[in-house]
Design goal:
Length: 298
């Protein structure tokens, strides 16, 4: 198992910067028992001018707020203050290339009633640059994404991730790198922790919103397509169509952009290096480490 902290690691917990090894939480928390918590997955990068930049910081903290409100959790933090705190946590831990995990959780409560307060923790750990050089062998999961009529699926809620864990573990147990989940109607949806795109004849396709987490990296891919003049369309994609695509990739804050070798052992025929998907991967790589003065980021 990975080690996320050591004796020196500092985290932010409800107004205080404290040692991770000394942080406590309530074992009677509604979050622990029912998966009733919301969180974010954010990354910071050392930019080309040596500064630390949290990529899409505002977007992530706005989504955290959206997730909390969608779950009826009290929420009283501004994106601005949380961004400032996050830079402070990074600095206290001497980290530039990092993964940032804010989590909003509930007090002790074994019932289902709304709470009067929420708590927040912000943890950071080192994450090296760009992991996704190898193409993935992907398997269609036997698990589908949650029914949007059963969950507020635009929220990044802890409990939703039981579905992701089941799907990812199943794929790995069968010798694949990752799972692809369909939606409740059998159309292509997303990975356990990433959105997906496929490419056909130089054009990109991605599942429309409705059954997937509206990813910030997904939105960044649209931004890149717009800037690079690449055509992209949101539509319902069948597994059959996907298997006939030239290329496909996952995109997410942690995964960044990672190409697929095959789906259910059906190989994508086009050489990854000759795809527009690869071009998008390269532009994304440059974007995340772009010097701060070049961007709209806070
Ligand atoms: N779908 C799911 C289920 C996820 O967990 C993630 C990761 N947050 C994504 C998509 C991608 O979202 P983002 O690009 O905002 O990280």
């Amino acid at each position: 198992m990975a080690s996320y902290y050591n004796k020196e690691t500092i985290l932010y917990l409800n107004g205080e910067y404290i040692k991770a090894s000394e942080a406590k939480m309530d074992f009677y928390s509604q979050s622990l028992h029912y998966g009733y918590a919301v969180f974010e997955g954010i990354r910071s990068y050392k930019t080309t001018d040596g500064e630390t930049k949290i990529f899409k910081a505002v977007e992530h903290y706005e989504r955290l707020k959206h997730s909390a409100l969608a779950m009826n959790m009290p929420y009283h933090w501004s994106a601005e203050e949380l961004i400032e705190i996050t830079y402070e946590v990074l600095s206290k831990n001497n980290l530039q290339n990092a993964y940032i995990r804010p989590l909003v959780y509930a007090p002790a409560n074994m019932s289902f009633v709304i709470n009067e307060a929420s708590f927040i923790v912000i943890e950071v750990w080192e994450m090296g640059l760009f992991l996704g050089e190898n193409l993935l062998r992907v398997m269609t999961s036997s698990f589908q994404r949650p029914n949007p009529k059963g969950f507020n699926i635009t929220a990044k809620a802890a409990g939703h991730y039981v579905n992701s864990i089941l799907a990812s573990q199943e794929a790995k147990a069968k010798g694949y790198d990752e799972a692809l989940l369909t939606d409740m109607n059998g159309f292509v949806a997303e990975g356990p922790g990433a959105n997906m795109f496929c490419e056909k004849d130089g054009k990109l396709f991605t599942p429309a919103l409705g059954n997937i987490l509206p990813g910030i990296t997904r939105a960044t891919v649209f931004e890149i397509c717009d800037e690079a003049g690449i055509e992209v369309e949101e539509k319902q994609i069948t597994l059959e169509e996907l298997k006939g695509a030239d290329a496909a990739f996952f995109c997410g804050t942690a995964a960044e952009i990672v190409g697929w070798e095959s789906l259910d052992d059906v190989k994508f025929t086009k050489n990854w290096n000759d795809t527009v998907s690869k071009k998008i991967q390269s532009i994304y790589k440059e974007k995340v480490t772009e010097a701060v003065f070049n961007t709209q980021e806070v």
